[in-house]
Amino acid sequence: VQLVESGGGLVQPGGSLTLSCAASGFTFTNYYMTWVRQAPGKGLEWLSSIYGGGGWPYYADSVKGRFAISRYSANNTLYLQIRSLKPDDTAVYYCAADRSKRIAGSLHDYAYWGQGTQVTVSS
Q: Which residues in the chain land under pLDDT 50?
C-alpha cells in the first residue's frame, strides 16, 4: 500500500495550491479518503474526507469555503484545492485512507497514510 502526497511548497499569503495524493495497493473506491494536517507544535487536524467511490465531501468548519476535496477514481488520486492561503495554513499535509470516515487524533488511527507534503505560507 502506498499513499504519496505531492504539490506542497512555499506559497505567498492569498495564493492557491492543489495537493495530490496518489494511492495504490488497495481498492480506492472502498475507502474513505481523508486530508489532515499537522502544524508545527500542534496536533493532527482533520480537514476533509470523501468516499473513494463517490458521494458528498465532508469538511471541518475551519476550512469550509476555502478547501475543496475531490477524487478521481480512474487513477486512484485524491486532491485538495486550497485557496486564500494564510500563514496559519502552514503545516505538513497528509492523506489517509480508512474503511470508516474518521476524525482521528493520530495518523495511526487510519488504516493507511502517506509521508506528507509540506505547505509553507509566507511572504
A: none
